[in-house]
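Researcher: Next sequence.
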Amino acid sequence: MRLREALETQGGSSLGKFSARALRMIHPSPTRAQQTKGAGAVLKENIAAGNTFLVTVNGKPASMASIHKYLMKMQDGRDVYEVEKEVTLPRFEGHKLAKQVSRAAFEEIRQRYPDAPVMAITKNEKIKTKYRKLGWEELDIRQVTARFNRVEVARQHGYTDEQLRQFDEGWDREGYRLFLFDPKKMD
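Model: Next structure:
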């Protein structure tokens, strides 16, 4: 179910609290307050556009994920989408709810934008294994730079080459990888 529809039909109080709690789980550190504020704005936009999906258990929100059009584009100009803001409340973990809600969001992207690549960024080893088994292409930061207009977008947002270099070092040090589902390569 789309979160917007749930808010319209079930009233907003518990779902609003769920969204706020979910954001705290995604960005728990107080030093990341600015990022949380930005994430909140993006989440509100995604809810209003019908791009946030929700799984409920006994009428209570349990897991959600959103569709997001990424700032970067493929070198061939195609927009890239991702399933983001994936969160499951701790008491519902282990019930494969995140899998259900992520699949719903992924299928929505595939339906709306059949030629669009879908990406996921993670440092979680279990999730990396999942994407490898699904046959998604794994990219390190240098491959990301080669395949996307990443540097151009970073410069448009005021990042210097030194800041990008530091970001790249952190990406490698933390073990992040980008996984890409590209329908053009799957044909």
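Model: Residues 1-13, 26-36 have pLDDT under 50 and may be disordered. The CA atoms of residues 52 and 66 lie 4 Å apart.
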